[in-house]
Amino acid sequence: MAQGAEQNLSDAGGPERHVPVLLEAVMTHLAPEPGDVIVDGTFGAGGYTRAIIGAGAQVIGIDRDPDAIAGGADLARAAGGRLTLVPGRFADLEKHAAEAGHAAVSGVVLDLGVSSMQLDEAERGFSFLRDGPLDMRMEQAGPSAADVVNELPVRDLIRIIGLLGEEKRATSVAHAIDVARKEKPFAGTAELANLIEKVLGRNPKKAQIHPATRTFQALRIYVNGELHQAAEALAAAERVLKPGGRLVVVSFHSLEDRIVKRFFADRSRTHAGGSRHMPEEHVSPPTFELLTRKAVEADQEETDLNPRARSARLRAGRRTANPPRHLDIHEAGVPKLAAFNGLGG
Questions:
Q1: Average pLDDT over residues 181-209
Q2: Contacts 24+ apart (CB under 8 A), 291-299
């Protein structure tokens, strides 16, 4: 790509509000080359996509947030036909790739974290640091976090907050929500965050961490079906990657990373464990070769520049020629949760 074109590409869409995490490691493990077709399943502000196009590859950029798709229009124009933007979910990436004319692709990259663009906009309701409507919907459609908080039975709130937020005092939080919502339904992020702070108090050893952090994480994950989507996206990537194609996944909390780690471990296994006292276990042919034996983490320089990178974990694998296998998302680590207007299950 000519130097002028590279400049136009880097400037497209204006200044980036979202700094792509572990970009160097993503590019190293994804290894895009001219002529490759890469699926960026979480387009966001286009940080990974810019770098991939800069390496000469073509990108199918998917995002369920309509604001992200609209915001990528300038980059798509600057890319000269090498970026196809698709509004949709990355769990459907196989279908999106086929509709873009590619039955198989050379790489898939997934950034499983919530976009800093969404966190920065109070009206999206993702953050308790900026008061806004209790929304949290990435697609800006379907049940909101307010619907869940105001309508779900207490027993289900306890399970969601406990499992998805890993909140040890989920029972106390859920019962306090139940008492408060009977007087007045929750509508904003601040009122929910303030209630949780009253229930849990502040931990002087972790003063920088708001007590509502885990509950808000749980609600966001549940409202957007994030763990379901992540597991289904891994299976879709396995189906759409050509032999030698690469899957690179960046996760930001232990629930996601556990699913990704379990998936790669299962799909790269070449022999059975156990002992001579146990019957021999059948092991399916591996569908991935591990490119990362352990998760890649950001170094101090990157975390100093981008605090969001502190919790990032990158795992990657190279597709073998063996046929894809069925994935049971619950066996992969996705918990079964209460069904609510299309959520959970």
A1: 88
A2: 291/29, 291/246, 291/316, 291/317, 291/318, 292/29, 292/316, 292/317, 295/257, 295/261, 296/22, 296/25, 296/29, 298/21, 298/22
